[in-house]
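I hope you will forgive my troubling you with a question about protein structure. The full record is reproduced below for your convenience:

——
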Amino acid sequence: QVQLVESGGGLVQPGGSLRLSCAASGNIVSILSMGWYRQAPGKQRELVARVYSGGNTNYAGSVKGRFTISRDNRENTVYLQMNNLKPEDTAVYYCNADLWVVLKRETDLWGQGTQVTVSS
């Protein structure tokens, strides 16, 4: 069984920074990609950023130039560095992984979510 455990959320003023972490553990054979999504109250969950095994990344247009996703392959951990945060970044942030366990590909793995609140 695979688990994704997130950390690093909190309350920050506009213009501030936060760094989120998500560690995957369990019987992992290989990780194809990991990503961050967010869901604000009354809105659908949306992609924030994703990083692939070859190092390629993609970002939502609203966070390009402010957020950076990175990955530590040895630790099966993905990070999201968030700079110049805005009130509209307020949401619950979720980690997602697309990976192989023994004989099976898992694509619908989610962490428990971490709250990010940007407010003065």
About this structure: The chain has a mean pLDDT of 96. DSSP finds no helices and eleven strands in the chain. The radius of gyration is 14 Å.
